[in-house]
Amino acid sequence: MATFAALRPFPPPGGSGAAPELMQSAADLARSGLPTGVVAGQWTRRRPISWISLAAILVSLFSLLPLAFIIWIAVQTGWETVSALVFRPRVGELLVNTLLLVVLAVPICIVLSVALAWLTERSSLPGARLWAWLSVAPLAIPAFVHSYAWITLVPGLHGLWAGVLVSVVAYFPFLYLPVAAALRRLDPALEDAAAAVGLGPWRVFRRVVLPQLRLAICGGSLLVGLHLLAEYGLYVFIRFDTFTTAIVDQFQSTFNGPAANMLAAVLVTCCFVLLGIEVLVRGEERYARVGSGAARQQQRTRLGRATIPCLLLPVVTTLLALGVPFVTIGRWLVAGGADVWRLDEIGLALGQTLFLALAGALLATVAAMPMAWISIRAPGPLQRLLEGCNYIVGSLPGVVVALALVTITVRIALPLYQTLFTILVAYALMFLPRALISLRASIAQAPVELERAAASLGRSPLKALWSTTIRLSAPGAAAGMALVALGIMNELTATQMLAPNGTRTLAMAFWAHSGEIDYASAAPYALIMVAMSLPLTWLLYVQSKRMAGR
Prior knowledge:
Layout: H1 26-32, E1 36-39, E2 42-45, H2 50-63, H3 65-77, H4 79-86, H5 89-122, H6 128-136, H7 143-153, H8 160-171, H9 173-185, H10 188-196, H11 201-212, H12 214-230, H13 233-237, H14 243-254, H15 258-282, H16 307-336, H17 343-377, H18 381-395, H19 398-411, H20 420-444, H21 448-456, H22 461-472, H23 474-490, H24 493-498, H25 506-515, H26 519-546
Antiparallel strand pairs: 1-2
Helix pairs in contact: 2-17, 2-18, 3-15, 3-19, 5-6, 5-8, 5-9, 5-12, 7-8, 7-16, 9-12, 9-26, 10-11, 12-15, 12-20, 14-15, 15-18, 16-26, 17-18, 17-20, 17-23, 18-20, 19-20, 20-23, 21-22, 23-26, 25-26
């Protein structure tokens, strides 16, 4: 980055001479790592933007409320009872089931997403743009609708491998989207240089491309893993027991019993392990650059004879992830006829779902911004700790978050019980990781030198942040809001427990009908949820392309 050589020294107040000892070049300012500006005619160093750190700390502490609730229950229960509830064969079975699900599903999602991203972004695959959109579209289908479709098509589909199959087709777009976006932004000059020294295509991909995808892969994998730990409806349909399904069963039978809270404590431990693995693999490498790099796109690799075999991958994936749900929903709509379209009930559920999704998405994105900023700009032990606090709640099932807020509101702030404020806070806590992942990746690609240069030219820290990093990360913020809104539309347990009386969202209506084995009456709600989610999914796709300047 060039220095600001044209900037001349400012004389000290009341004097006429230069003060070289008070001057720094822009390069020196960038190396200092601190925001700077001109105050009273002098170059002065300012403290780091403390209000951002304070906001991140407050959000992180607030996100610990569900965990504090679990610990409080454990203290009240006593160690003897806690050890008896945790160290028992049933917990071991649930732990094995949950770990196998994560260990099998996440690597499959990584391989599938990277392969699809490379085919759609870097190869001569016929209809690459169409397949790219179809690889994102499964996000529009709620996970429990995927499971509903598969179980009605194949009634005997149960167990671990059924869970892995449905989990992969439901959640792989969370990995595909950031990987494809990262591939679009890579500077092709790096790969050309590697090829020029004699590296073959596979070695270029392994040694040059894949390391640059590490941040996207780690973030997406963490997001998929957290969803696997917290998912409930998907595994209920296929009768596969995980910690989440067991926790919900315990809460439904004893409302606020210690057994469910101890299961939730084990689930939090699993989240810590997952977060630690992501931190170790991610590293602290720099992923931003100053300047736009090469002003050209990467030349696509010709597939030649491999075109047909490579085409089978997106075709089969689309059939499994989109074909099965749409065929199943269509079949039940035809079987139910016009009687299943109760427009008064559907209209009420649609309006309430839209309002909750938009309000919750905005709140979660605003709450995630401070943590995303310090995660990239000020990494360190404190940042890792605060970031971990935000991910903890993402691993908890909605019923745990809901019961924690129920206990707090009933015992401390009764007027807030079952109010709009409480349900929006629950959404912000539950879906904060979605907004944080998108914002973090976007801020990582906004050069910090621009922020420091704005501060060195006299702008206040807030104005410097707004004019550079926040504006450059706006596409990531929009993508994060869309991801949060998708999650809120599909949320069930927390909405049932915290929403004001009379609330009936699309997910609640779908679950009520499907629970009564009335699959035909549930089909309209499933179709509307998909139709509502498609525009948001399209927004994710478009924003990911805009981030690459396409």
